[in-house]
Task: structure prediction
Amino acid sequence: MRLPPALLAALLVIPVVVPRAVSADPVAPPAPAVRDFGNGPERNEVAADVPQQAEALKAAQTEQPGTLSHDRGYPRRTRLPVPPANPADASIKLGLVPHHGIAPRLNDLQQRGDRVSAQVIGRSYGGRDLYLVTVTAPESAAEAREQERIRERIENDPAAAARDRKLVKRYKAPVFVNANIHGNEWEGTDAALRVIEELATSKDPGIAALLARTRLYFNITANPDGRVNGARQNGAGFDLNRDFVTVSQPEARAMRQIMIDAQPVTMIDLHGYVNGTLIEPTTPPHGANYEYDLFIQNTYANGLGMESAVNGLGYTPEKDGVYPAQIPFRDSDEGWDDWPPIFTPQYAPFHGAVAAHTVEIPLRVNGSDYTQLPVEELRRRSAINTDVAAAAIRATYAFVRDRHDRLIADQIEVFRRGSAGEPSRAVPLGIVPGFGPEDVYNTTFPRAYVITGRRSEAAAARLVDHLIANDVRVERARHAFRADGRTYPAGSYVVDMRQPKRGLANVMLEAGADISPRVDAMYDISGWSHGLLWGAGVDGVSSLRVQADPVKAAAPTGSVPRTAGALALKVADAKDVLALNDLLAQGTAVTWADGAAIVPASARPAARAVADRYGVAFTAAGTAAGAPLSPVRIAAATSADELFTLRELGFAVTPVSTAVLNAGYDWSGTDVLFVSSGLSYAALNPAARAALDAFLATGGVITRGGTGAAFNAAAGLLTATAVAGRGDANGVVRVLSTGGQVGGQVGGQVGGGSPDHSFVYSPRWFTGLGPEVTVEQSYAAEGPLVSGHWRPNADGTGGQDAARGHPAVVSGRDERGAAVVLFGTEPMFRNHPKGLFPQVARALYWASSVTGAAVTR
Ligand SMILES: [Zn+2]
Result:
């Protein structure tokens, strides 16, 4: 399922309907759209237990997915490597195919006819193969090249494609079936394999005709780590169906590449478990960057077709515990929205899908059911779930067969509107039955975005490369130019919004909207912004007169000044952190002064090497001195995304928790303790507490969120009271950073040099500060929410107005000498707000450099 933090459940103002009992209570009446809030981890309180996997992390950062070759015909008959059998694969208990059983099945299916082609398109975080299957009628290499020429024409010259009446007749409509993105929602995979086998072996002339006019792409299991482990997340602990704005994980990169290369007109994403089967389209709020008039008509039509196919299987509440299907758009008011493009079907439309659906099959087999129900009952449920998922797949290909020309024409129209730079269209009320004013969401597209390195060249380069990886066109200005009264230097990047995928460009670069007034509660996050949170300078401009050249990758950004003497590296981007950690690991004598690392003149060759390797820019340090810095060794009681991010930044991290400390922990290898999840000072046994107290005399502490604030209070660190905002509030906030002119002046160690925006989820602010506490960053007096959803609690507390002007990040030295930083924001949330990672790094370097050195700096 699309499952939010359980925290939400406790705080939602609308009633939360618990998952329905099925066979145990077959006559229970169907409820409105049901969300299972019950069996997911509560993000902020779960101890990270992800093992150290340096290899896997490296793969997650660097591995590029394989692409669909356009130069070969079909079938391709690739021999897939077969992994060793794993008797512990969690699928086996359910009578489903284990991951190691997929390659043999696909190898066999490729031999049974000429319709099936399989390939490995990448590897999971845990190193498991990802399989893409293409089912279509045979094509010569020349025919495959022609299909690719048409696909390109649809994307890149949509106006001409729209005028070409013969085009839709010659083009095979691409359909994408994504299965098992949540590893413990298994049966989409088994249904995909079943349908592939039917298609491969069918003698039905209707199937032959279908495959002559379509290409069906199946991502057999989007999350093999989770499938094997019986877990929702991948091996890194990430929910892949939240990763599409960030694409931090290799599995998400593979899915993104399928959507770019195949350009599906229709896609379905197979999940579980909601009874009766939940089939999108969604409730409001609807994402404002879609061509929603086209999208809702097609998506609703296929939704109705899938509903009819699923109900037509004949399962009943009385006999089978299976309720009739439900469609949130039709059957619910709100609570299952398509606002954030973090979900597969909410990302696919930006690559031309004009019908896209989450499908939640009905009978729960995960969580406590997996461990407690008899195997027979689990297998009965899984068999029904497989039938339901297969019915949804068949209904979808039938839909594409019947609506072939229109779907292609609508995809062309999406890209045509983008290329022409047409304004966002208000969808006519009643365009489909029930489409009312509550469903209308629009945005304003600027003429272009300009991306500069005014904060950090490395950050600008990262954003540009991210846009290009998402198939957004970026150009680079040949000369300085003016736009909206501002002068931009030569070399600035330009995203011309007259382009086919302008919706995707805008959904990433725009600030977003505060939708608190329009809806009571949201399903997941409501705010994100690469423009505001990734550390680059991003301006929407209303006119564009510039000579610019297309770029395939951002230009190199590393530099070292020619002047002699010491060098400074301002820690303003994750790449600066990586470079500094590399220098420290090499044993370079580095000091830390007010947000920057100072490298002696003697280490110039090492500085030049990391400038090259990471694209970081050194400046002349002048007379700056600072405290000696060594590699920072972190003990971390964090959520999985924070652990991933800290390691990605090049820090050495050892996961800890209450249990780990209670078992006896050797603090001698730790410089800083990071606490945001799974560690309670009050729950430590006396020996663990004594050991921790001894560490606090020499080590630093960083905390975040409720768990962190409780730790600060219980351990008697800084004098500060953390006030909690509403628990489900989240989004982009305006902040003011105090002090900390980076590179010389005394002031905030952490906030200085930060972007003007931060990200919050369950925000906190600090009051009652002791004299030892410095304010690093405060919520702005205006807003502070820029985009997202943040309402007050029912009693009026916890709203954004209550946070206005209050400290969001504070630092200080406690009476023992420990350097402490408290975050009320979420600087590493799901690896998304890249521009905030340096704050965390600066907190770590500062805490590590001053603690134990007692007083002087
Ligand atoms: Zn799911």
Notes: Residues 1-2, 182, 185, 271 surround zinc ion (CB under 6 Å).
